[in-house]
Amino acid sequence: MSSLGPYLLLILLGILPSLIWLWYWLQKDAHPEPKVLITKVLLLGIILSPLAIVLQLLFVDIAAKVLGVPANTLSGSPGFYLWAAFVEEVVKYLAVFFVVLRSPDFDEPVDAMIYMLTAAMGFAAMENILVINRVIGDGISATLGIWGLRFAGATLLHALSSALLGYFIAMAWYYFDHRKALFAVGLTLATLFHWVFNLFISQAQHTLSLFYSTLLLIAMAFLVSALFDKMKERDGQITPTIV
Prior knowledge:
With about 240 residues, the chain is mostly helical. The longest helix has about 35 residues, at about 35-65. The chain has helices at about 5-25, 35-65, 80-100, 110-135, 140-150, 155-170, 180-200, 205-235. The protein has one domain (about 15-25, about 35-235).
């Protein structure tokens, strides 16, 4: 049992920020979703997360060959961060698509935001575990510092960007004929928000970058909260089927 202790602690540290944020956002749902579906989406978000890593590595490999430059020069480029943001948003969406998008329990527009947030928290949990695994050898103080930054930064980022996409998926209940365009707009905005945040964090050694990333998260948190409230107000008006 003692040999399992460090691994269990690592998993707990990685998943705890996701569970806290998920609990917070679930309080905004007036009609709670089935715990089974929430759990399935959360777990699939974790399971599918390595797909994003594979796609990011493929981007670096292919781009390096096309451009004729060393791969390590691309991994921190703006183009890489844009691609990384895009594939992560798509992977989180797939967790929702495969589990609930055609489920009879997906019966309110706001559900799209709830399930996208849930998938995001699964994705973020795996990301947190991998990051903490890299820094845990630096000591408890350093590990807890990174944990705090992940909790208030990257984990919240995933929640907000996915909720933003979820809002546009939810709008398809009211503008069904434009569902593809709404999804494209939502995915684009979620990707851009994610990308800009990553660019700021990549320059974290500069105080202004940390300030701007924090400001961006605060602004997005207010926006997503407002969108949640707006969507709840519209619930029950019409209920076409999303396909």
